Amino acid sequence: MTAAQPLPTLEITALEKRFGETQVLRSIDLNVRNGELVFVIGPSGSGKSTMLRCCNRLEEPTSGAIHVSGKPMLGIPRKELDRMRLQVGMVFQGFFLYPHLTALKNVTLAQRKALKRPRAEAEARALEMLDKVGLKHKADAMPSELSGGQQQRVAIARALALDPKVMLFDEPTSALDPELVGSVLKVMRDLREGGMTMIVVSHEMQFAREAADRVVFMDGGVIVEEGPPEEIFGNPKSDRLKAFLSRVSGEAA
Amino acid sequence: MDTIIDAFFNIDIMRQATPLLLKGAWVTLQLCAVVILLGLFGGLGLALLASSGSAALRLPAFVFIDIFRAIPPLILLILIYAGLPFVGVRVPPFVAVCIAFLLNNSAYFAEIFRSGIKAIPKGQMEAARATGLSPAQAQTWVILPQAIRNVLPDLLSNVVEIVKLTSIASVVSLSELLYSANMARAVTYNSSPLVMAAGLYLLLLWPLVRVISRFQRGLSISH
Ligand SMILES: Nc1ncnc2c1ncn2[C@@H]1O[C@H](COP(=O)(O)OP(=O)(O)OP(=O)(O)O)[C@@H](O)[C@H]1O
Ligand SMILES: [Mg+2]
Where are its TM segments located (chain B) (predicted)? Predict the structure, then answer.
């Protein structure tokens, strides 16, 4: 650890993950600075989701270390893990709003039960976050009454309400109809402008060009190449990245 | 024709039997309340064990569920009532019935709860845990409310089965509805009290059966 630099908000060190015999992640090192947006690209099966899921231990890493603001995520008792998870917001491809609760209750539940915030405070915070994602007027709606884009924005508000230090997005717009993608990306852009630290796994290359500080290309469970978006998209070095980019742009065209 | 009416729908005999049968119906109601609550809680506990991540909890729960779903409840009841005195425990009929029903109903309710829990997408639990909820909190506030709502018609159907099944308590001389009706039949040499008992069961269960079929119709429309 270098003393001169400030602590990374998220620090992934020598992360390995095996599912039985299959090695899915091999020695991943990735540091995310405070306020940085790291964009992760890579072919299907390259381990992008697994890496994100290891960060909050939805997947149990085989070895390595994860630190959030210098505090370890691994080798801690379950209660401590629950507390640490409050600092790592996660947004899923499939939203996973609680279908039996209103948008507001979706956003207050963990505040009340995990953070132990009083009801009034939790509701005020929830409304503030719903406002931030443009859905304050939908506070009393059930998830089934919301469009996919609206559901995903409520899911973002649910994570934000816990004041996380870092937000993980796993293909947040992949399940959405094209016309709804923009509203979710806008929220993510606002978040970035507000200084949120983020890792985003996505295929929205245009968003990466505009909003990412750094793009990480994964393939076969390793980080093959990383750099600023201009470099990664404009001047890819490795053959694997070149092949991936031409395949993706071919699909988009 | 007259003989049938005389033997099964005899108003005089029914009138005579009414106090006894109402007493029996009251015992049946109390019995139902107790064994349904026991079964619901036992079943929920078993279902949570059977859905747990640890095989050490899961296996015994599955063994319990399989065994007590396979043993006919009547045999179970007689074994408990006749068997417990041999190990030095003498229990009143009501308690014996409660034990037998706890074992049997928990197993059935557990299967229903478990199928409800299993049907909830894995992402629900992950989303809940990712927001810092403990496993117990995630079960209580996220998984179970959805699971129970999904299996409500099955839970209610099982309640109907249990209410009817409480009539087996008559074999250990618990004076519930069937026992009382049978007694009245023996005294009067007339089957009208049995018809009356059937009527009382119908009265008790008909609203529940209606609710269930409305549920099921609602489900098939919304699907
Ligand atoms: N629970 C699991 N058990 C076994 N193998 C798994 C499991 N989860 C993921 N894998 C495997 O790990 C590899 C990486 O999966 P992962 O979902 O991380 O890839 P990804 O980069 O997110 O892909 P995609 O772009 O399709 O989402 C895949 O080969 C996948 O089959
Ligand atoms: Mg993925």
Answer: 24-49, 61-82, 94-113, 194-213
